[in-house]
UniProtKB/TrEMBL annotation:
Subunit description: Homotetramer.
Domain (Cyclic nucleotide-binding): residue spans on this chain: 462-582
SUPFAM superfamilies in the cross-refs: beta-lactamase/transpeptidase-like (SSF56601), cAMP-binding domain-like (SSF51206)
MF terms in GO: glutaminase activity
NCBIfam families assigned: Gln_ase
Organism lineage: Bacteria, Bacillati, Actinomycetota, Actinomycetes, Micrococcales
Any Gene Ontology biological process: L-glutamine catabolic process
Binding site for substrate: 63, 113, 157, 164, 188, 240, 258
Domain of life from the UniProt record: Bacteria
Gene: glsA
Protein name in UniProt: Glutaminase
Keywords, sorted A to Z: Acetylation, Hydrolase
Pfam families for the chain: cNMP_binding, Glutaminase
């Protein structure tokens, strides 16, 4: 099968075939390049690379080296030391302008030659060659393979580098370069002559898109905070004197080189590389610019394009009173819960929680002013630091009002910084358990101790309405069974094994997921039962039920149910009526929940 992404890339390559521009001639070796060469590569952040044209043809990296050397200087020296020598202001000047900022004496940014030569000098190392070797290895870690120097391009450029030599000496004159300017110039020209393919460049870009982790090796090459800096400088200065045009029309951090390459980075999604040696008057690949504009437009890649509004973080918001869960509470307790269930609110969140999403949650909670809140983050993918801090502020706010926020977070997307201390929030693996905790808390707030587990069992719909005579018969057949944490109580695929009422501990129902994983469905708490659903699936137990802790159940086995039905038909009738009522009650709640929140 041919991927539609591949087909799309091939089709735009055919359509964007600008033959405008000239091959760079000031480096003799580059002037000899075949102007009609072409390659495009798109590398995703999980390391898949799509290519069109000859993406394995090698050429010298040239100025595309600049962001990566700057990254190494930052890694070696930190923001402050690098910032003392090179600024981050767009210059609006050509790449090889002989200029320094008049006030600071620093090169305006690390993407023009003056700044790039300075950045090369900031790489740690004992000599120019040592620093260059570190640069070459560093680039290789972004590309995911070892890279080599193209000797002929290096020789060709070093012997004609009059302008860059002038820049290096000027930098030395202003003490921006501190060592021998010739040594730094040599290092810089070597760095520009490192040989790469379009595929390499796409992976180097994808490493930046992936927050500094190389997609195929999984190695963290660059700290995330430096990735942000490098991308910012690429966005504002990467395309020299056409940076404004580029960021308006393409909208991605990018870098071009005079051999005809361009990389562009779509943070969080992909890295692109295009190669076509004919350059426009700014020194950027003409066909490369054309293609990037086209891709960005077609694929909504402009970084200012807002896909999903991130303030839609709250997918559902409702009071406890509307929640469809099985409950088994003594009636007096249930009355208290019913009276106050409006003041416990459940907030189901989803997506990535950034500032706007967290603010939305906060506004909802402030507006509802609940006594207790359940924050359910099971469908949340990622929580930004700002959201974490904001939601902690929410917790403080609720606590000051005498309330509390319970968190449902089985995957640990929002770990509690106070975990293990007195200040920790109540965390739960499923909504069921969080609701149970809130109910107990509500009862306590209103002066009632949550009922003993035994009492809960008596309140179970199966037992609660039985006549004393029927209850006696059933009690006679019920047996108490103990399990240890992780014991399998019911295996999926087994036969109906009777009704299990939990008197203490918890049980976890799960089904088989993809591979050998297990998908946890629900935690079953004291006072509720399991096993009877098998009656609805032709007597086959569909879920695996495992003890979540030390577990005690009252079991009415399948045989016992048969015996009761045979020996005491009237009790059997009562029992089956109770079971039917319970089943309809569960179905009714499930149905209502579908209508209310589906
Ligand atoms: N080596 C080239 C130079 O310094 C790199 C310039 C570029 O690619 N724009 O002139």
């Amino acid at each position: 099968m041919r991927s539609p992404v591949q087909q799309y890339l091939e089709s735009i390559v055919d359509q964007c075939n600008s033959g405008d521009g000239e091959v760079a001639a000031y480096i003799p070796e580059l002037a000899a390049a075949d102007p009609d060469q072409f390659a495009l590569a798109l590398a995703t952040v999980d390391g898949h690379v799509y290519t069109v044209g000859n993406a394995e043809t090698a050429y010298s990296i040239q100025s595309i080296s600049k962001p990566f050397t700057y990254a190494l200087a930052l890694s070696d020296q930190g923001f402050e030391a690098v910032g003392r020598k090179v600024d981050v202001e767009p210059s609006g000047e050509a790449f090889n302008e002989i200029s320094l900022a008049s006030d600071t004496g620093r090169p305006k940014n690390p993407m023009i030659n003056a700044g790039a030569i300075t950045a090369s000098s900031l790489v740690s190392g004992d000599s120019g060659i040592h620093r260059f070797t570190r640069v070459r290895e560093w680039f290789g870690r972004f590309a995911g393979r070892a890279l080599e120097l193209d000797e002929s391009v290096y020789t060709s450029e070093i012997t004609t580098a009059h302008r860059n030599r002038a820049i290096a000496h000027m930098l030395r004159e202003f003490d921006i370069l501190e060592g021998d300017p010739e040594e730094t110039l040599d290092q810089y020209i070597r760095q520009c002559a490192i040989s790469v393919t379009t595929q390499d460049l796409s992976l180097m870009a994808a490493t930046l898109a992936n927050g500094g982790i190389q997609p195929t090796s999984g190695e963290r090459v660059l700290e995330a905070t430096y990735v942000e800096r490098v991308l910012s400088v690429m966005a504002t200065c990467g395309m020299y004197d056409s940076a404004g045009d580029w960021i308006s029309s393409v909208g991605m951090p990018a870098k071009s080189g005079v051999s005809g390459g361009i990389i562009a980075v779509l943070p969080g999604q992909a890295g692109f590389a295009v190669f076509s040696p004919r350059l426009d008057p700014h020194g950027n690949s003409a066909r490369g610019v054309q293609l990037c504009e086209r891709m960005s437009g077609d694929m909504d890649m402009h970084m200012m394009h807002v896909g999903r509004m991130s303030n839609t973080a709250v997918r559902a918001r409702y009071p406890l009173s509307e929640l469809a869960l099985r409950r088994a509470r003594p009636e007096a307790d249930q009355a208290v819960l019913d009276a106050h269930a409006e003041k416990t609110m459940i907030y189901e969140l989803h997506g990535d929680l950034l500032f706007a999403g967290a603010e939305h949650v906060v506004r909802a909670v402030v507006n509802d002013a609940p006594d207790l809140a359940i924050i359910d983050v099971r469908k949340v993918d990622d929580v930004a630091d700002v959201a974490r801090v904001t939601l902690l502020g929410l917790r403080t706010m609720l606590r000051e009002a005498g309330g509390e926020a319970a968190v449902v977070d089985p995957e640990g997307v929002m770990p509690d910084p106070d975990a293990g201390t007195q200040k920790a929030s109540p965390y739960f693996d499923d909504l069921d358990s969080a609701v149970r905790w809130c109910e107990d808390e509500l009862l306590r707030q209103h002066g009632r101790e949550p009922a003993e587990e035994r009492t809960l069992v008596d309140e179970h719909p199966l037992l609660r309405d039985l006549t004393p005579q029927a209850r006696k018969v059933i009690d006679h057949h019920i047996e108490e069974v103990h399990y240890q944490a992780e014991d399998i109580v019911l295996e999926a695929g087994g036969k109906f094994a009777g009704v299990h009422l939990i008197t203490s501990g918890t049980a976890i129902a799960s089904v088989e997921g993809p591979g050998s994983s297990r998908v946890r469905l629900v935690t079953i708490n004291p006072g509720t039962s399991f096993g009877e659903l098998a009656l609805g699936t032709e007597g086959v137990q569909e879920t695996r039920v495992v003890a979540g802790s030390d577990l005690t159940v009252l079991r009415l086995s399948a045989e016992a149910i048969e015996t009761i039905t045979a020996e005491h038909p009237d009790v059997g009738l009562e029992m089956w009526q109770a079971m039917t009522r319970d089943a309809y009650r569960v179905a009714d709640r499930a149905l209502r929940s579908g209508i209310t929140f589906g």
